[in-house]
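ASSEMBLY PREDICTION REQUEST
Request ID: AP-0331
Submitted by: J.K., bench scientist
Number of chains: two
Total residues: 226
Priority: normal
Notes: Please return the full assembly, not individual chains.
Input sequences:
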Amino acid sequence: GENVEQHPSTLSVQEGDSAVIKCTYSDSASNYFPWYKQELGKRPQLIIDIRSNVGEKKDQRIAVTLNKTAKHFSLHITETQPEDSAVYFCAASKGGNKLTFGTGTQLKVEL
Amino acid sequence: GAGVSQSPRYKVAKRGQDVALRCDPISGHVSLFWYQQALGQGPEFLTYFQNEAQLDKSGLPSDRFFAERPEGSVSTLKIQRTQQEDSAVYLCASSLSQGTYTEAFFGQGTRLTVV
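STATUS: Completed
Returned structure:
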């Protein structure tokens, strides 16, 4: 089955700096890659996603890149703010089916 | 409703007790997923329904776990003879249809603690 690895497990940045989280996947048939943000005790919420026919997608301060050949994708957050502090999960799926999640990255944005 | 609703939010069970966790998906959503999230980990897939049909139950860890969605809407995840290793947050997610690129909306989860 699919296996998703995520790095780093914790990331601390200064407010205004950029943050990058990287994921790799194993199943070349995976074609949908969402990123979820989960605040403590709350539900995971989709922040951005990318499909396998696209190499990059941007939404304001958030961008995701996908390298199908290398089977890795990354989340980029620019101009980080304290409210960006949360756990971020990458995931992969085939055809909109079940999601296989990474182990999460605890992002802390320090003032 | 406005989103996916799960109940109860918290459940404490004595080891060996049976529990039932409820999920109310977004109205009209065809697909429903259950995930288990252990502390400090990502959610792990348990089972998937398309309407009332359970199409994938490959993630259920043992035959003590059972899920149903009899009318294609509300779903119940039942755990029999709970064990300490069952302690986790159980998340339900629904999506509009089965197909590529359909966003899954998550509920807030049920935190199960087995003592």
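REVIEWER COMMENTS: Residues 69 and 75 of chain B are 4 Å apart (CA to CA).
SIGN-OFF: pending second reviewer
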